[in-house]
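Repro case for the chain-ordering regression, as requested:
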Amino acid sequence: MKRPLLVLGALMALSVPARAAFTVGGKAYTKRLSTDLLSDPKALAPAAFHLGYGRKLKVDEVRGVWVRVEDGPSMGWVFGGNLAEDKPADTKGMDGTPLAASQTSATAAARPLAPAAEQYGDRKGLAEAKADVLWMEAEDDAITAGQVDAFLQANHKGEFQ
Amino acid sequence: MRRLLALALLLLAAVPAQAQFNLDFNGIVSKAKDVGKMTKGVAGIGPEEELSIGGSVAIEIAGHYGGVVRDEAITRRVNLVGKALARYSSRPQLPWRFAVLGSSTVNAFSAPGGYVFITRGLYDTLQSDDALAAVLAHEISHITLRHALKIIARNDFFSGAMDLAAQSNANFAKFDAGIDQITTTLFEKGFDPQTEFEADQQGRLLAITTGYAPGGLRSVLVELQARGGDPKTVFSTHPPLKERISRLPAEPPPPAAVPPAQG
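-- result from build under test --
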């Protein structure tokens, strides 16, 4: 009887650490400009705290795709996809301001084709291709973060799994 | 004994695909750490420079592969799936943009700063959002891992070329030479195989994290392999399909295409 139980135990043990790259007692980092710490492991749970970019967190619990973390007195649940195991490499946003200090989504907002890229297209005689990229940017930037949220929710992706 | 073993197997099978996948996640994390060390080599290229390089490469990609397909519905679809993936990438703050190219070849490209393209030839073979997500996640990973930037960062002569404010011909020449190096790699040589395998692994992880089927990329590659076709027009700048397939876990293909909810 002992052997089959051992086999079962070993197989179950294999399946447990499979759950997450984040381990209890380990660390995690925020990688978004603003990360909500939720009161429950549910996408629509109220936010108990808000954290900025690149914060080092302690992992308290892992439950499926959800991770309970703490940062001093702030603690709550975060979808694992919103956390990084390693400190994010980017230090500055697209507008050149330090990401850690940014409290807005300005750095993630639409950015037009860089002047140097526009000049490159002109120098190389790629007017049509440049117009295509400008069209692409206009179309893509018209899709709001709220529309992506709605898409995730409707299709049960991300924190809505 | 047999019952217990059956129970154990059932328990394993009941573990979500995402959880099972994470069995090899530590290996991927370890590789990602190595990549993180390498990333320091491109630290000299800041966000503004990355956008300048990326925008220029994006123009070259559009020029080489039939231009951007100006279909609003298709563009919206690739952007919703792409932006969903990018949100959980390691660089969610980039201004991510996705488009389909009017080329009948089967390929996908990315440019620094968040530009992702797939050709019409590839787009038309993708039968579900899981398959589309797998391809986009691979390209997103090239950007988050800064693969293209490493091409120019390795070259000393490009250093200093980013000071375009000087507006001198010499600086333009250096800048253009750097763009040429990237496009030569993207259009002709391709990244080295290890770089592509890394993007396959990282992209698969990103797709799974977002909630797409683990076997998405493998199913796309298997489908393309089964169709045969001229290697010059099917992922010509990537390692052979057989090699890429062999390095991915033998996971089942995603369910048949289901029209996505638009939210």
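Ordering looks correct now. Strands of chain B lie at 97-101, 108-111, 115-119.
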